[in-house]
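the two lines:
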Amino acid sequence: MAKLDVELKVNGEDYKLQVGSQERLLDTIREQLKLTGTKEGCSVGECGACTVIVDDQAVNSCMVLTAQVDGSKIITVEGLESKSGLHPLQKAFIEKQAVQCGFCTPGMLMSALALLNTNPEPSKEEIKTALEGNLCRCTGYQQIIDAVEMAAEEWGG
Amino acid sequence: MVEYQLLRAHSLDELLEILDEKENVQILAGGTDLMVDLHHQDDKFEKIDYLLDITAVNELKGIKLGNKKGEIGALTTHAELVNSPAINEKLPFIAAAASSIGSTQIRNRATIGGNLANAAACADSFSPLIALEAEVVLRSKGGARKILLEDFVEWPYQTIIKADEVLEKIIFAMPEGEYYSSYQKIGRRKALSISRISLTLLAEVENGSVKKAQVASGAATPFPVPFRKVNKYLNGKNFAAINPVEAGNIAADEMVGITGERWSTPYKRPALGKLVERAVEDLLEEAGYNG
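prediction for all of em together
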């Protein structure tokens, strides 16, 4: 099957890529761009481990074919840290001990970032709704919600 | 081994041209159902030569609500419905149904047209739109036809869309005068929940009576239907003469009349009855009737 040409801006960098007909955004990010922070969990949109931001919206990268998002701006967990250091969300996750095994963390951070980018002062309910598509089997969620609240206070709000 | 050629349409004309020219084409929109099938290498892909992504077709996007008529483009996402001020103000039961679907990530991608065209028995978009007596516009290169949504599904996962057609938009008359609505859903959890039963009640009221009621459910029957007997029970009735429990019983009997006695009936009969009862109670309360 013929490959398709796509252009993506990932974490601020432009890429011209060739992708297969069945290649998911998750595959492109991990296998072609070697950005392995984005995790594959359930592969069917239930767990949110593969969450990235596509054109300002949190999406499951396992449920999108890369060719569908040709021309899009994408942010992965690797896009959080800048020259000035860790992102306030990352600092808050560390401070609030919102990370245990860490597998869900990249997806959690992306869902939280998409929320704070559009809603800098979210309520607790809005945080829960933003994170409802991200499963964590370690923390019990409370520390993660606390971390997003803290980041919102220090950075978003 | 699944093999197909992925195509992308960038305009409605291009989309209709591809559907006209090629055979064995499967349309791909938000992908939140289809990508699950692809991951499982579902048998349905054996019959597919082309997967046609339509997410770049802007003509299929958008919400327009006028005073008399409304339309929702097939590619409108559930997130767009949840966040639409017009939908929340005028048709809040559609926003309620959309917000109950999947998760934030799913709602950002999943489209209302995809939810209808996939035609799962549990699809949450049907009951609010059937309550609105909505029609779907199916367009092909040769023209368009309008079909009442309640006639759109033949069987679970089976619609009357022809191979050269695409679901373009959903159209409906806006409810008139004073009206109230209720959307309810029973699932096994809050997020990422597949409906056990969902229900919409939409009622136009006038002078202390129900002028026109529309009750429809999802997941209660193999494919979504309006509950005509309970509509008939409510229509024209003075608030004082409405018994919510009786309305619930009528709806439950009507459901079992369609499905027959099944393994789930001992659960679904009282559950549906109670949802209808609650919806009618909400209606009476919101309409200011205190019994």
